[in-house]
Amino acid sequence: MKRRYGAIYAAPQALWLAVFFAAPLAIIIAYSFLKKSLYGGVEPVLSLDAYKAIANPNLLIVGWRTLWVSLAATAFTILIALPCGYSIARSGNQALRLFLVIVPFWTNFLVRIYAWIAILGTEGFLNDFLLALGVIADPVQFLYNQGAVIVVLVYMYLPYAILPLFSTIDKFDFTLLEAARDLGATRLQALLKVLMPNIRGGLVTAVLFTLIPIFGAYAVPLLIGGKDSYMLGNVIADQVTKTRNWPLASSLSMGVTVVTGVAAILFALRGRKGAPRIAEDTGLDASPGSTLVAARAVGTAAGSAAGTAGAPS
User: Fold this and answer.
1) CB count, 10 Å around CB of 95?
2) Which residue, among 258, 270, 269, 299, has the nearest Cα to 282 in the 3D structure?
3) Where are the domains of the chain?
4) pLDDT, tens digit, for every residue of 38-82?
């Protein structure tokens, strides 16, 4: 009889998840439904006060700000990571370029944040450079605002987006782009209609790897941001360390977990959903085996459109 070792192989991973993920999450869920103790901690009394407190208008403003900053930072990260991943995939020295992408991971997280403070400060490198060029007459405060937070968040999480995008683009058959170009598609049309649908999995992974940690960011808004950059991560930290309102901190943590979990599920479902948009536009099968046909269809459609536009009326 053939033995099945699947359960044995999965046991270490299951134990790891149970101890370091499921158990802490269960504690947070339990604390969110308990009553705040007078001197901090919780009392073993069921209460919904923590969830009622989330409806506070000030917390809702912070939640909206957190969502806006997270989406903006994620969007800029993906916009920068896409050409970087494409360039690395088409490069002849991928190892060197990947090494340069990974190098920032060798430096402590806080060190990189303080490096940006040295760059953006009123006496930092950027102000000194602009003053030397005569662009500005007095130092400009680039720090302690939402713009600075977004810039530093993009820098911090850019490698998390570049690596999955490079991994996906590197497996793409670039002759499909050439086929689309030969049949009349512009460079932009070939990229949007042929490349982008085929790297959707990498895009979804890059978005998840950046949006989820940025949504719960704490150190960057604390050190780089000002009053208009206070985010949910900072609220949770203050409730634990200063106010010692553990139930409210737990309920806010649950809110962040639910939002990021729903976002992850929606992106994952979107990444797996059906055939690429090429199939909708051309009526052709867009499975991996027929991608070349899709590329030709895109080129033919683009060429027909160009011919129609140039034909005399």
Assistant:
1) 9
2) 299
3) 51-173+200-274
4) 887 888 889 999 999 988 899 999 999 999 999 999 999 999 999
Cβ–Cβ under 8 Å, residues 233 and 249: no
Q: If one looks up domain 51-173+200-274 in CATH, what number appears? A: 1.10.3720.10
Residue 204, token pair as written in the block: 């979804």
User: Could you tell me the two tokens for 46?
Assistant: 């069921």
The C-alpha atoms of residue 278 and residue 197 are separated, in whole angstroms, by 8
Please count the other Cβ atoms lying within 10 Å of the Cβ belonging to residue 159: 20
Q: Which residue type does 150 have?
A: I
Q: Assign 132 to helix, strand or coil.
A: helix
Give the predicted TM-score (pTM) of the model: 0.79
Cβ contact 166:102 at 8 Å: no
Q: Which helix (H) or strand (E) holds 118?
A: helix 109-120
pLDDT per position as a tens digit, 104-150? 888 888 999 999 999 998 888 999 999 999 888 888 889 999 999 99
